[in-house]
Amino acid sequence: MIRGIHHVAISTSDLDRLVAFYRDVIGLTVLRQSEWSPGSELIDAIVGLDGSSARTATLGAANAYLELFQYRTPPGRPQDRDRPVADHGYTHFCLDVVDIDAEYDRLVEAGMRFHCAPPPASSLGSGALRSTYGRDPDGNVIELQEILDDRYPLTLPQLA
Asked: Are 63 and 159 in contact, with CB atoms under 8 Å apart?
């Protein structure tokens, strides 16, 4: 039985920079940092790499986790920081926010790039939400979404 999504994982060339962004700008909590050295057959089997080594960090939000990896071996290949979201693979993860305009302004001030400012709710069809896409320092897409109507089917439960 699948219970839900536990975490999203991102590979980066600079773990410290991405941890600082998601901790200091986005507001996630660093829960754990670890690393492994080459030679673990079990980890190599799980990740599908030979001779892997990496530093990792797990960050927590109210309802999910974000896992960050900086592979030392083998070295990862950078992606295009402006990779179109239509390309196959990871497209984005979504942050549920209150007051999307304030969050957008705060994140722009912190240096986050966005595709556009949050459009009016009426322009998205149902009028039940507002949304926009931005990018972290590595170019990974983050959606900001504000649910305006509690009857909208994807409304998150109120979390303490």
From this structure: yes
Q: Which domains does the chain have, with CATH numbers?
A: 7-73 (3.10.180.10), 93-147 (3.10.180.10)
pLDDT (tens digit per residue) in 59-97 = 999 888 999 999 999 998 888 888 888 887 788 888 988
Report d(CA 58, CA 78) in Å as an integer. Answer: 21
Residue 70 carries which DSSP code? E
User: For residue range 1-30, what is the model confidence (pLDDT) as tens digits?
Assistant: 567 778 999 999 999 999 999 999 999 999
Token output for 135: 């990018």
Q: What's the one-letter identity of residue 114? A: F
Amino acid identity for residue 98 in this structure: V
Q: Residues 21-30: contacts with CB within 8 Å, 24+ apart?
A: 21/136, 21/137, 22/59, 22/66, 22/68, 22/136, 23/59, 25/107, 25/110, 25/111, 25/112, 26/95, 26/107, 26/142, 28/59, 28/60, 28/61, 28/66, 29/59, 29/60, 29/61, 30/57, 30/58, 30/59
